[in-house]
Amino acid sequence: AEYEEPTTARRADVTYDDIGGLGSTIDQLREMVELPLRYPELFQRLGVDPPKGVLLHGPPGTGKTRLARAVANESDAEFFLINGPEIMGSAYGESERALREVFEQATANAPSIVFIDEIDSIAPKRGQVSGEAEKRLVAQLLTLMDGLEARANLVVIAATNRPEAIDEALRRPGRFDREIVIGVPDERGRREILGIHTRGMPLAPDVDLKELSRTTFGFVGADMAALTREAAIEAVRRIMPKLNLDERTIPPEVLETLSVTRSDFVEALKRVQPSAMREVMVQA
Length: 284
Ligand code: ATP
Fold this sequence. Notes:
With 284 residues, the chain is of the alpha/beta class. 45% of the residues lie in helices and 10% in strands. The chain is built from twelve helices and five strands. It has helices spanning 23-38, 40-46, 64-74, 84-88, 94-108, 132-147, 187-197, 209-214, 221-239, 252-257, 262-271, 277-283, and strands at residues 53-57, 78-83, 112-117, 154-160, 178-181. It has a five-stranded parallel beta sheet with strand order 2-3-4-1-5, sandwiched between helices. The longest helix is centred in the last third of the chain and has 19 residues, at 221-239. The chain is elongated and about 65 Å long. 38% of the residues are buried. The site of adenosine-5'-triphosphate has 18 residues, from helix 3, helix 7 and helix 9.
């Protein structure tokens, strides 16, 4: 296996509890993906084919990858990640081979979820691409999707922030015929996400997560994660002068008093910008 990275199966350990502000999306995915993977007999009994492909559509950093990992984990399914731009970058013929290998492994290890991140980069509209290699990769993906048996117990989840840019043929029945829109979180969503990312963080009593979620309009999950990381770095900066850097460890009494304060978050807010501002402006 020379082509290791994207084909390595790894059981994901993220759960639905690690995803904030996407309650109804999780419900939809459970119905579309988790139920059929866990109880294929339900769908066989009813004589319907569960979906083979689900397209997650939304701006970057909103949790699409994390969501796919969580569904795999909660469904007890193997998780295979294909990174669109990465697979595109490989040598001639190599991309198709890598794609085939992932599908083969996923089929052999079913139940499984194949997650294709940034699918627009491997399956752009064929009329708009110049290269033969790109066209062949789209064709390969279509062939692989069509070749999946309904009872394969394998679901392909793909993510994009440009659904209009992908080849229409991909969205026909039996391929990515379900679509879930994932938006920028609202205040409640941001509050949930903050709760998740500060779970293991000692917070000073003056930290008001509700207020923070109000003042972070336009922040997506990735921004909220960055914000809490920055706030923690602020706390470290604050404590640095108190440290004796000749010592090998930090005295417990110093460590025990260390927490992240409101002003650490205020400082962090100066450095983290909402990455989804453009989308938010359009929606507003
Ligand atoms: P991209 O399209 O850029 O790959 P994405 O939508 O797949 O982005 P993720 O990679 O899942 O986003 O999220 C990046 C990080 O941001 C996550 O590891 C997590 O720390 C945080 N994050 C994003 N969305 C959420 C969310 N809804 N709840 C909790 N954390 C989130």
